[in-house]
Structures are given as C-alpha cells and as structure tokens.
C-alpha cells in the first residue's frame, strides 16, 4: 500500500516518522480527524523475523506483514500519504516553528508537527546461531512467544550488559508458567545468591559455564553447547538483547534524553522540543504491539489538540 513520494509537497499538519504499529495508529487517528498526514514508513519493523504476532486483541496470530499492510491500507483510505522512504535529517525553523525533514531519496517534507515512531533495534548476544534463528526458536519475550513453545525444553541465556542481566533472570523466573523444563545458562554473568535462590524456588535448573554456540541442525535449534564441550538439548532459547532506540531523528531535533539514553516524554508522548512527539518502542522499550498502537493513538489526540490550540489562538490586539 506504500507509494514513493520524494518531492516537496507543501506543509503537512503532521509527519509521522515510522510505519509500525505506533506510527500507523497515530496516522489513522489524525487522518480521520481530517489532518493532512504523511507517514515515512522507513525500514523493516522490529518484529519482521516473526511469523506471527500475539497478544493483540482480535489480531492474535496475524503475521506482522499482514497487520501492517492492513493498517497502511486503512490510513490511505482516509487520505493519509504513505512514503516508502526514510528520514535522513530533520530540523526545526526557529522563526516559523515548522519542521523540515530531508528524505534519504533526496526530497524533503515540511510539517507543523512531528511524531517519531521509529522503534528500536535488538542487539543480540554474539553467539553463533542466535541471529540465524532469531524470531523462530531464539526468542526474547515470553508473553509474545511462550505459549507457542509451551511444555518444551526451554533455555535462557544470560549476559554481562547490566540491563540484560536483570532481564535474563526475569525471563527465567517467568518461563516455568509455560514449561516445567527450564534451564538457565548464566554464560558470562555471575548471578547473585539471591538470584539463584529465586530460580531454585521456581524450579529452574542452572547450568554454569560460558556458552559457545546455539546448535542448529536441519533448520531448527537443537540445543546449547558450552565452551567445555557439554551440550544441553533445548527446543527454544530465550535471550536478553540490548535494546537500542532508533532515535536519530529525535537527536537531530535536540530532544532531551534521560541518563539511560532514551527520549524523555510526558504521558502523551510530548518531548522537550515543542511540536515533537515520540511513541512506541523508540520511547518505551517494553511496549508490546498493542500498547505501542495505543501510545500512537494517545499521541495523535494530543497532537491534534495542540494544533487546535494553535489555530484558535486570538491575537493580543484582538482581545
């Protein structure tokens, strides 16, 4: 449903950067509010490797590509413009308050408001087999994929990055709800005594030693191999990737970030730069597809209210 459009098309009420769940949800609300909206769809969504998405009421089990195609068609049906392009740079005109977004293809867009919904990227553990089976039987979210691997031998691999360590233990504590056979591989991390006691209380087996690779045979994960030669058969493995926001547009516009490197927003997605909002995984690494869509809707309503406030402002001389 995308169309290539790289010329200067005048001023849009809103340019949405990112065509995932958050971006398309926002564009749908704004297009139905009869705003002039362009969506710069960008690259492949984070969940592109997955065959199905789950936990989205009425859309459970739908392939991500189908979900996004349906959403794009709905936006287009209300007059929203879909651009198969990426934003290379963005800046704000301090005099007019408008935004100029330069596209990778060479064109540019002008907008009164900008919503950034570019998501995040997952940096996986540097293990042979991890990238190859990512989204199939190498997973990260029990709520997204746990039911599909229920009652199977499952593994969780730890790491050394601080956030990843906490997430790995958290996932290992969750998984016994889906399987009675869960093994935690600390890999290069050192779990605390408290962590080990909690894992034991949940019936999680702990296998120490550095992981060498994930064994893949005949297009399927077969197990976890350790550096000392031991092999532990597993049907699926959960890892704790490092989440990195795709925040280049927000950085270019000067939006404030917190100590953790993520953009600072209010509850409706407003950033520190007037006229710029952020929604979905670019602002909230824990957002599921359904909550990202909700955040996009919330931001869209706030953006429209902001535009109405601007349009209804009475000049001082007329008061």
UniProtKB/TrEMBL annotation:
Domain FAD/NAD(P)-binding: 12-293
Keyword Oxidoreductase included in the entry's annotation: yes
Keyword set includes Flavoprotein: yes
InterPro entries per UniProt: FAD/NAD-bd_sf, FAD/NAD-binding_dom, Ferredoxin-NADP_redctase_2
Family annotation (Pfam families): Pyr_redox_2
N-terminal signal peptide: none
Catalytic activity, reaction form: [thioredoxin]-dithiol + NADP(+) = [thioredoxin]-disulfide + NADPH + H(+)
Record keywords, A-Z: Flavoprotein, Oxidoreductase
PANTHER family: THIOREDOXIN REDUCTASE 1-RELATED-RELATED
Protein name: NAD(P)/FAD-dependent oxidoreductase
Species, as recorded: Nocardia xishanensis
Lineage: Bacteria, Bacillati, Actinomycetota, Actinomycetes, Mycobacteriales
